[in-house]
Amino acid sequence: MTHSSSNGYIFLEIPYIILQTCYIIWVFICDSMRSIITGNRKSQKQNRKLILLAVSTLFVMYMMSKYTLTPRFTFTNENVYGKCIIPNLNPFDESIKKFEWHPNKIKCDDNPTLVFVNDDGFLQYNESAVRQQHLVGVTCVYSVVSRQKGNDDYVDFGPEVKLKEPTRVTGDYFRVKCKDSSSRNVYDVMHYQIDSKTVKETRKIQSESDDKFSILILGVDAVSRLAAIRKLPKTFAYLRDEMKAFEFKGHMKVADNTFPNVVPMLTGKKAYSNELPSKDVTSVKFDSYPFVWYALAAAGYATLYSEDYADINMFNLGKAGFDRQPTDHYMRPYWRGIKKIDLLGTLINSALMGFEDQKMGLKKTSTLCYGNTPKHVLSLNHAKEFIKRYSHKLRFSFTWLNEISHDYVNFLELGDDDFKTFFQWINENGHFDNSFVVFLSDHGSRIDSIRNTYVGRIEERMPLLQIAVPRKLRDRYPSLVQNMEDNTQRLTTHFDFHETLLDIMNSKFDSSSEKPALARGISLFSPIPESRSCAQAGVPEHYCACYGSEEISVTLPVINRIATFVVDEINLLLGVHNDLCEKLSLKQIKHAEKIELGLKANGDVEFFSFRQFFEEPEKQKEERYLVLIETIPGNALLEATVLVDNHKRFRLLGEVSRTNKYGKQSHCVKEDALRLYCLCKQPPP
């Protein structure tokens, strides 16, 4: 399948312009040196003109790339104060499919690591790897990596210690360098472990129990629920089918990008507001923020925060970061260590990633690898080590992946097998028995071309949230299960997720009373009002993806056709028991509403682009209606939502619900789905 980049100017993007500029200047420097050596002044003068022409051309290319980007239109929801009707969209809509393709599989270095940390926590040589690489007389040293005091961006390498077996390294992250018998450098790699021994020596970690549960979170940047269905089908299905995870279909973001969406998740507060100790995020560090991991640590949890792609970390990109390490185990120094060891390679990889997205790999191995392992797998294995080292202890892990999804939406599918394997490992090794397992995101894809489609602008506002509840808790609290099941069809936000984390920490699982509709954050264990609006949930009008409804006349021709369609669909269902159930007919249409997305383009764009004068966001092609009808015989009152596509074809959205009691009318059938509609031909015995 052919494809293009998100803005249509793949080779004009800034990373490529930098590479092109460096290459051209290098060529001219070499040519100038030759001219000086040969004394060719004419050639020198010609080269200066060519350099000026090249730089001018590149400047024009840069300006074209900057001002011919796909315009980013802005929208406002006109129904922010009305009851939220959850969008029900096709994940495989044609408008989205054209932006998606299958990237090449990740290919990493074949060579295994020369050292590893064994199951007992000791660093040792990998003798088989030494033999495989035909190395002789290998000697290695290691140095522990530490954050510079009060600095989240720079790390120091400690004194080099000669590796002797077995060796227990104190610290989570360390650099290993090896030489062979001829003193040739053959290895320089960052390694990690989970040094739980040191943590356990400094404070008591509480054990899991029948009412104290661990929380294991895997977050992936910029993944909507619909994108997960498309790009992560194995992971999505495994959580849903094997771990019975709840899938929140009305989950919405509350701000634009990662930071202001994750802050409500982890603090329950609105980012950049007076609710937090400081609105200044560029110079004031985040140590004073009320992150949930601080409360969990005080409650006896071991804590982990891990985030890859360190250059764009949510608390560091244009922000002050942390003064002290925020959690017991904090992976940022690992990634900063990699960059310190190989600064040029790290920068080049960022540029080459765009070529790889276009299936134009310029390296033998993928830019998504570090050595012989994909970087997202390193993060997953890091989380697994944490889970293992604190087995049966209270654990809070927050593992966040950026690189596989942030810039190039199609890379996401490369993680599907690994994500599924990660959750499968948690489930099959008993860690799910006493743990809530969460798979989530901050927002959907923010690629401009996708966001300008009708479906894309909705799913960008509706991130993924799946929560798997420990089986013994499901059995013990049926009301919790029912509330969570109901809430999968309600408007939910990151504020609600935070309240849920607090309920887990405080063992509040039996919450059957409905919270006030005006509460901004409502635990997902509690009933969330069906009438909830974006305003009540803390979702600004710019990010509200809810539909609104308007009552319309029941005499409209389209409503009559829809009502007839609904009756025909019900009769099709009853067809398997036409010997038992009466065929239904339409008696009257009692009520009708037109359902429309309140999100309307307001005429503005987020940045200037010449293309804004020639393009406009895709408009809604489909129509949705809600009808309440009465059928005979039996006088059933039935409510249905029907989609009318751009070809005037009808499709039911969800099930047809019955709004009056059916008593013993359906005594002759056992299927719950049919009991709502069947009027038995024979009276009850």
UniProtKB/TrEMBL annotation:
<feature type="transmembrane region" description="Helical">
    <location>
        <begin position="50"/>
        <end position="69"/>
    </location>
</feature>
<dbReference type="InterPro" id="IPR004245">
    <property type="entry name" value="DUF229"/>
</dbReference>
<keyword id="KW-1133">Transmembrane helix</keyword>
<feature type="transmembrane region" description="Helical">
    <location>
        <begin position="6"/>
        <end position="29"/>
    </location>
</feature>
<protein>
    <recommendedName>
        <fullName>DUF229 domain containing protein</fullName>
    </recommendedName>
</protein>
<dbReference type="GO" id="GO:0005615">
    <property type="term" value="C:extracellular space"/>
</dbReference>
<dbReference type="InterPro" id="IPR017850">
    <property type="entry name" value="Alkaline_phosphatase_core_sf"/>
</dbReference>
<keyword id="KW-0472">Membrane</keyword>
<dbReference type="Pfam" id="PF02995">
    <property type="entry name" value="DUF229"/>
</dbReference>
<keyword id="KW-0812">Transmembrane</keyword>
